[in-house]
């Protein structure tokens, strides 16, 4: 069963809890851009595609709100390179 991703706009993050561990993406919005600052997945739940799902959900939010997806986080930079359709 896939874990649910929750948007917490008051904390500028998307998060999910799996097996009692919280994974999340932190972002900021400025100048019509949504910038992913950090992607955090605890070691105990890593390697399950959680980071990719969190980044995708965050950039889907950007699309829905006409924000340009950008990345400071190295994981998000690599994700955008693999998913070039999100860069336009």
TrEMBL record:
The protein in question is named: N-acetyltransferase
Superkingdom classification of source: Bacteria
Query: Could you tell me which InterPro entries the record lists for this protein?
Result: Acyl_CoA_acyltransferase (IPR016181), Gcn5-rel_NAT (IPR045057), GNAT_YJDJ (IPR031165)
For the N-acetyltransferase domain, which residue ranges apply? 6-88
